[in-house]
Amino acid sequence: MSLPERADTDPVSLVVRRRVRPGHEAEYESLLTEGAALLSRVPGHRGTGIIRPVSGDREYTLVTRFDSLRAAADWELSPKRAEWLSKVEPLIDGQVSFEKQPGLEFWFTPPAAPTLRQPPRWKMALVTLAALYPVSVGSGLLWPLPWDTGHHCSGHCRRW
Q: What is the C-alpha to C-alpha distance for residues 57 and 54, in angstroms, rounded to an integer?
């Protein structure tokens, strides 16, 4: 299978962000339920996730997964989607953000994720040692191993 053919059969996620006009949230929620029901009947649909706005915000994020780019394109061009969008558009305030994320990349590297620098290895080793060493030594002193009977010492070891 060549690369272009493979890209057409790889899973894809559609990520849509919409800001809802104040006072229209309940109507939009109802349309989200209707849209999810429509999507559940689309061939190639793998699932839909809705990320609702946090308090004080009005931006909803809809993540829809398809098993191929072809299935996603069929949904985007469908008359049912166009009809559903005609009901949604009057409730939207401002620009709609739309992204197509191939494969599983959306779940692991969202586009707005900050790049975090890893600490130096010596710091990670020091923190690990500082946390684990006292625990391992302390647990050995408090709870001797069940097979450790203390008889391996030739009389000079004392048992706690």
A: 6
Q: Which residues contact 98 (CB under 8 A, 6 or more apart)?
A: 14, 15, 16, 17
Distance of alpha carbon 100 from alpha carbon 15, whole angstroms: 6
Nearest Cα neighbor of 80 from 51, 40, 110, 115 is 40
Residue 64 vs residue 151, higher pLDDT:
64
HSE-CB at 93 with a 13 A cutoff on CA atoms is: 12
Q: What pLDDT, in 10s, does the model give residues 61-79?
A: 999 999 999 999 999 999 9
What count of other Cβ atoms lies within 10 Å of the Cβ of residue 17? 15
Percent helix, strand and coil across the chain, each to the nearest 5: 45, 20, 35
Q: Are 60 and 32 in contact (CB under 8 A)?
A: yes
The two three-digit tokens of residue 135, written as one number: 């625990």
Q: Kindly report the CA angle at 151 between 148 and 156, in degrees rounded to 5? A: 120
Question: Is 92 exposed, middle or buried, given 0-12, 13-18 or 19+ CB atoms closer than 10 A?
Answer: middle
Band (4; pLDDT cuts 50, 70, 90)? very low
